[in-house]
Design goal:
With 296 residues, this protein is mostly helical. 51% of the residues lie in helices and 11% in strands. The chain contains eight helices and seven strands; from the N terminus they run ααααααββαββββαβ. It has a three-stranded antiparallel β-sheet with strand order 4-5-6, with no helix packed on it. A hairpin with an 8-residue loop joins strand 5 and strand 6. The longest helix is centred in the middle third of the chain and has 32 residues. The protein is extended, with a radius of gyration of 25 Å.
């Protein structure tokens, strides 16, 4: 199969209509999030959208995603953090070890993936040697390595589905491959039968999964895995939670808004980073979370 990629050129009227649709979608997302945070119910929002907008189906699906995401909505803000040369050197050494440890944990996570079919945020990694503490290692695994690898596999999963849908395979084989891809069964056998649902007709089909189909799904997946560049973690930033970077209220130095108690490579010798918020943060009236990101 040969595919060609082109840049899409729109006429002035079409471009205007597309931009208008995008603005409506963004506006509805913001409106839904704000109303949900105010305590509105889903049915109330569906009623409002049903009356005011012709894109009811789009907004209903959009509303579902908004409901799922509204409890996890966070925004990163840049803060002023004046540092001495000594503290900068400590953070540099910490960042080098952090990235080295992230690579080692990623290697172990890939081992788990090929043997169990999935990554594990809570895997036991005490056997991985590092100058960082166990708290640091589990923070790296939970907040950095596994989310990045899961995102990589998710993109690869979408590409797998595109290839199968655009192929010349029999319809039954397509449906089985899509089922295996949806359930992450590229390498590990979990199901004996594939279930495919046609939502238009509300019809459920059940197929036996043959060995040839299992072999095909494995070959396509491995081909994509070898073709795509895996995350290397060479330039990852320090992403830390309260176990390694505790945000504290100022007690004596009132000219700073917060202090970050950062654990270092030396046990029992943390450093304190002063934080000054910008006016924008104060105007928004938001609260800080326990997650800190420190980049170069």
């Amino acid at each position: 199969m040969i595919t060609l990629q082109f840049r899409l050129e729109l006429h002035k009227e079409d471009r205007k209509a597309l931009k208008d649709l995008m603005r409506r979608q963004s506006s509805c997302m913001r409106y839904a999030c704000n109303r949900l945070l105010e305590g509105k119910k889903r049915k109330e929002l569906q009623y409002i959208f049903g009356l005011r907008n012709q894109f009811q189906f789009l907004l209903t699906n959009l509303l579902k995603h908004t409901i799922l995401l509204n409890i996890k909505m966070h925004r990163a803000i840049h803060v002023s953090c004046p540092l001495t040369k000594r503290k900068k050197d400590i953070i540099k050494k910490l960042l080098i070890e952090y990235r080295k440890t992230a690579k080692a944990i990623a290697g172990y996570q890939w081992f788990l993936f090929f043997n169990t079919g999935s990554f594990n945020r809570k895997a036991n990694i005490k056997h991985i040697s590092s100058n960082l503490s166990e708290r640091y290692k589990y923070t790296i695994q939970y907040h950095v390595v596994v989310p990045v690898l899961e995102g990589f596999i998710s993109n690869l999963k979408n590409r797998f589905a595109e290839i199968v849908k655009n192929s010349n395979l029999p319809e039954k084989t397509k449906r089985v491959l899509l089922y295996l891809n949806k359930n992450n069964e590229w390498l590990i056998r979990k199901s004996e039968k594939a279930v495919y649902v046609e939502y238009k007709n509300k019809t459920v089909f059940e197929y036996d999964i043959t060995e040839e189909e299992r072999l095909l799904v494995k070959k396509v997946f491995k081909h994509l895995l070898n073709k795509w560049r895996k995350p290397k973690f060479n330039k990852v930033s320090l992403i830390l939670d309260s176990k390694t970077a505790l945000i504290e209220e100022p007690e004596k130095a009132k000219h700073f808004d917060r202090w970050i108690r950062l654990s270092t490579l030396e046990k029992g010798k943390p450093i304190y980073l002063p934080v000054k918020f910008h006016d924008y943060f104060e105007k928004r009236g938001r609260k800080t979370t326990n997650l800190v990101q420190i980049g170069e």
